[in-house]
Write a structure and sequence with these properties.
The protein has 159 residues and is of the alpha/beta class. It is 49% helix and 11% strand. The protein has a single domain, classed as 5'-nuclease (Rossmann fold, 3-Layer(aba) Sandwich), CATH 3.40.50.
């Protein structure tokens, strides 16, 4: 399964030391140049800058120019680029956390999963302890509604 990621899911996975879940869940993970730039930005935490400074071999940084689409103007640059790259590549899934970006992506026919969904899938495959991973996310500033967290931490699905 080929995935394209926006900045937020990768950033939080770096901060909790769980980026290695991605190549276990997806056959390929790509990011557009705009996401690379956001991860490398001086505004990003140093751990994220260091990680993207020496990206793992499984991460594909796609610097191909993407089309301009005015319908995406209200989204952040990384979100726009991730959606456009997912469309261009015919990706199986796009990793997005922001509600507006998720809504736009779904409306464009893309399959979307957020960081919590990634962690839930990893937990279903017994790759991570979900409550521990969620607590780690919360400790680095990740925000989610209490109702979402309660539903997420319910009984895991078994495949």
């Amino acid at each position: 399964m080929r995935a394209v990621s926006d900045t937020s899911p990768l950033s939080y996975l770096v901060l909790i030391g769980q980026t290695d879940l991605l190549p276990k869940l997806f056959t390929a993970v790509s990011i557009p140049e705009e996401v690379h730039a956001e991860l490398a930005s001086s505004r990003a935490p140093s751990a994220i800058q260091q990680w993207i400074g020496q990206p793992p071999p499984w991460l594909v940084i796609d610097s191909t120019a993407l089309p301009v689409d005015g319908r995406l103007d209200r989204l952040h640059a990384g979100e726009r680029a991730a959606i456009l790259l997912a469309e261009r590549m015919g990706a199986d899934i796009v990793l997005l956390d922001e509600k507006a970006a998720r809504t736009v992506a779904v409306g464009r026919g893309l399959r979307v999963i957020g960081l919590l969904g990634v962690l839930r899938e990893a937990a279903n495959r017994r790759l991570v302890d979900l409550p521990t991973a969620v607590q780690a996310l919360l400790s680095v500033g990740f925000r989610a509604s209490p109702a979402l967290l309660k539903s997420l931490l319910g009984p895991p699905e078994h495949s």
